Amino acid sequence: MTELHPKGGFPRRDSPPAPAPPPFEVRVTGADRLGVVEGAAKGTTLDVVRDEGGRIVWLRAGGRLHRRVD
Question: Based on the structure, what is the number of domains in the chain?
């Protein structure tokens, strides 16, 4: 399961975070590409962005980057 946790600060620096969407399941659909397989975002693709060592550090979805949180 994948979860997004909005932090706020958009569109203004003092904007509060939006409500978090429910967790969603993703599946590998290609090299560094995931697809959402259920819920309202079904069919959305996510691109994995790795650091120099190959560790996943970002997900790109809908033109936005989302930082990985351990």
Answer: 1
Give the predicted TM-score (pTM) of the model: 0.70
Close Cβ partners of 22 (under 8 Å, ≥ 6 residues apart) = 39
Closest listed residue to residue 43, CA positions, set 58, 33, 31, 54: 33
CB hemisphere CA count around 69 (13 angstroms): 8
* Cα 67 to Cα 8: distance, rounded to the nearest angstrom: 14
Low-confidence ranges of the chain (pLDDT < 70): none
User: Exposed e or buried b for every residue in 11-34, given b needs 16+ CB within 10 A?
Assistant: eeeeeeeeeeeeebebeeeeeeeb
Query: Cα–Cα distance between 5 and 67 in angstroms, integer?
Result: 10
pLDDT of residue 2: 72
